[in-house]
Amino acid sequence: MKTISVVINARLQSTRVSQKLVRPFAGTTLLDIALDKVNRMDFFEHRYLAVAEDELQAMASGYENIEILHRDTGSVKKGVNPIEVTFAHYLKVPTDYIFVFNPCLPLLRIDTIKKAYDYFQSTDFPTYTSAVPTGDWIFDDQGYVFTPRNPFIPANSINHGN
Length: 162
Fold this sequence. Notes:
CATH topology of the largest domain: Spore Coat Polysaccharide Biosynthesis Protein SpsA, Chain A
Structural class: alpha/beta
CATH superfamily of the largest domain: Spore Coat Polysaccharide Biosynthesis Protein SpsA, Chain A
CATH class of the largest domain: Alpha Beta
Largest sheet: 4 strands, parallel
Shape: globular
CATH architecture of the largest domain: Alpha-Beta Complex
């Protein structure tokens, strides 16, 4: 049996939406939704909230199964930080594998995660990641559609009105 811990990485200095994890969302916050779900995931060896800010650490106090995984303050600075700083806290996790739980996915269900956990336990693959095709539209900073209108036309060949 592989040992697996789950980690919620959280910071207040998001580049695109500052403090998005603690802003009001559906009568609660994105972080509280994630903490509540992870708190109930008893199939993981450890359940962590990885933070550097005291405000975020305090939010975990009401969840009896959540452990704090301390991060360096340099790992939560706004923008993209050096990988060896951003993910150094993973070296403190005493299990074979880490499942990273993204708190910005509030509709992800516990049973979906359990199915992924069980599948990973049943295989010999060393890692998994997921990519799911969607029909989302993505816009550039000028408001032009970045996503190809036709799936057979590469995005970088679209004339953006220039």
